[in-house]
TrEMBL record:
UniProt keyword terms in alphabetical order: Membrane, Transmembrane, Transmembrane helix
Lineage: Bacteria, Pseudomonadati, Pseudomonadota, Gammaproteobacteria, Alteromonadales
Subcellular localization(s) per the UniProt record: Membrane
Highest rank taxon of the organism: Bacteria
Source organism per UniProt: Opacimonas viscosa
Protein known as: ABC transporter permease
Domain ABC-2 type transporter transmembrane: 16-387
Membrane topology summary: Multi-pass membrane protein
C-alpha cells in the first residue's frame, strides 16, 4: 500500500500542472481573487458614498431653510424641474429616466413650528433597488432641522431637558450580551470556515483523483499496475491515501496563504483582533477540527476515486466530479441556517454535523459529547465508501469499460 502511495506521490510531484493547482494556485491566485473582490467591493461602496447625487426639489418655497441646507451640501446637486406635485407620473419619470437620482416633494403645510404643524411627511422618490445613499443624505439634513425645531418647541412649552429626554425616548433597552468576543465573532464567521475548508479539500483532491484513475486508463499504465503482485485492496488504499493527502495539503496551503496574506495586508487593529481571536481558540479545539476533517476527506476521496475508476477518460471523470461541489454545499448551507444546532438528528447528518461542530468549536460553546455521533456517523460512512471503492476496483467490467 505504501509503495503505491509513494509511487503516486512521486508522479504528482513530477506533474507541473498538478503542482500548480495544488501549491501555486492556492498560494497566489486564491488570495489575489479574494483580495481583488474585497478591494473592488470597497472601492465601489466608497465611490457610491462620495458620488454627487442629482436631485429635484418640488415645493421648495414652503421650506426655504430646508432647501438652503440641501443646496449647501457638496454631495448634492439641485436640478431645476417644471414637474408639479400633482404629476406623480412625471415625478417618477425623472427618476426612471435618470434625469435625477431622487425627487423630494415638500408638503404645502411645511413649518418649523411643531406645535402648530404637527408631524410632517415629505415624499422621497428614488430607485431603491441599487446602492443608493440618497435617503441617508436627506435624513442628515432633516435631522439637523428636526433637532432645532424640537428644542424650540420644548422651550416654548417650558419642558425641562430631563423631561425632554423622557418624552423623546420614553423607554430604553440596555443590551447586555452574555457572549464574549470569541463567541460573537465565531457566530458571524464560524459558518464560513467549514464552507471554505470543505470546498478546498474537495477541489484539491479532484485533480489527483482524476489523474490516478481515469488518467492511468488513458496513459495505458493501469494494466501494468494490475499485473503487479500487490493485492487490489492495497492498490486502492495507496491511491486513496494519495488523494486524501493531496486534498488536505491543498486546503491547508490555501487557508495558511489566506491567513498570511490577510495579516500582511490588514491594518494593525485587524491583526490585533485576529490574533486575540485565534489565541482564544485552544490547541485542543484546533486538533479536534483537524481530526473531524479526516473522515470528511476520506468520504471525498473514496467518492472521487470511485468515479475516476469508473470513468473512461480524464474528461469524463471531470464531468462526473464537478456536480459534487453542489452536493457538498447543501449540507453546509443547512448548518448555516438560523435555528440549526448541533443536537438531535443534526448531530448524525454527515458534513452538516462536522460544519456545526467546527462552528461551535470556533465559538467556544462546543458540547464535546456531540463528538461521539459525529465521529461514529462520518467514520462509518467513510468506511462504507472505502469498502465500496475497493469492491469497485475489483470489477473488471468497471476497470475496462
Amino acid at each position: 500500500m505504501w509503495l503505491v502511495f509513494t509511487k503516486e506521490i512521486k508522479e504528482l510531484l513530477r506533474d507541473r500542472k498538478t503542482l500548480f493547482f495544488m501549491v501555486a494556485l492556492p498560494l497566489l491566485l486564491f488570495p489575489l481573487i479574494f483580495g481583488s473582490v474585497a478591494y473592488f467591493s470597497g472601492k465601489v461602496i466608497k465611490e457610491a458614498q462620495e458620488k454627487t447625487l442629482n436631485y429635484a426639489l418640488i415645493g421648495a418655497q414652503y421650506a426655504p431653510e430646508f432647501a438652503a441646507k440641501m443646496a449647501a451640501r457638496d454631495d448634492l446637486l439641485l436640478i431645476e424641474t417644471t414637474v408639479t406635485r400633482a404629476d406623480e407620473a412625471g415625478i417618477k419619470a425623472l427618476v426612471t429616466e435618470q434625469t435625477v437620482d431622487f425627487v423630494l416633494v415638500v408638503p404645502e403645510n411645511f413649518s418649523n413650528d411643531i406645535i402648530t404643524a404637527g408631524q410632517l411627511t415629505l415624499s422621497l422618490y428614488l430607485n431603491d433597488a441599487g446602492l443608493n445613499n440618497a435617503q441617508r443624505r436627506v435624513y442628515e439634513v432633516i435631522d439637523d432641522i428636526a433637532i432645532v425645531n424640537q428644542a424650540d418647541a420644548f422651550a416654548r412649552l417650558g419642558v425641562s431637558e430631563e423631561i425632554q429626554v423622557g418624552l423623546l425616548d420614553p423607554i430604553l433597552i440596555e443590551k447586555i450580551s452574555t457572549a464574549d468576543k470569541r463567541e460573537d465573532l465565531g457566530e458571524k464567521i464560524g459558518g464560513l470556515v467549514p464552507y471554505l475548508v470543505f470546498i478546498l479539500c474537495l477541489q484539491g483532491a479532484m485533480l489527483p483523483a482524476t489523474d490516478i484513475g481515469a488518467g492511468e486508463k488513458e496513459r495505458g499504465t493501469l494494466e501494468t499496475l494490475l499485473i503487479s503482485p500487490i493485492p487490489r485492496n492495497q492498490l486502492v488504499l495507496g491511491k486513496f491515501f494519495t488523494i486524501a493527502f493531496a486534498g488536505v495539503t491543498s486546503a491547508m496551503i490555501t487557508v495558511g496563504s489566506l491567513f498570511v496574506w490577510g495579516v500582511v495586508m490588514s491594518q494593525g487593529m485587524a491583526i490585533k483582533l485576529l490574533t486575540e481571536f485565534m489565541g482564544a481558540i485552544s490547541a485542543l479545539d484546533f486538533v479536534l477540527m483537524f481530526l473531524m476533517l479526516i473522515p470528511v476527506v476520506a468520504i471525498f476521496s473514496a467518492v472521487l476515486l470511485s468515479l475516476s475508476i469508473y470513468a473512461k477518460s480524464f474528461k469524463e471523470a471531470q464531468g462526473y466530479m464537478t456536480p459534487l461541489v453542489f452536493v457538498v454545499i447543501v449540507p453546509i448551507i443547512i448548518a448555516m441556517l438560523p435555528g440549526i444546532k448541533l443536537e438531535g438528528i443534526y448531530a448524525w447528518i454527515p458534513l452538516t454535523n462536522v460544519a456545526l461542530a467546527i462552528k461551535e468549536l470556533i465559538k467556544g460553546t462546543m458540547d464535546y459529547v456531540a463528538l461521539v455521533p459525529i465521529f461514529l456517523s462520518t467514520t462509518f460512512i467513510a468506511g462504507v465508501l472505502i469498502a465500496f471503492c475497493t469492491y469497485w476496483f475489483k470489477q473488471e467490467k468497471v476497470l475496462f469499460r
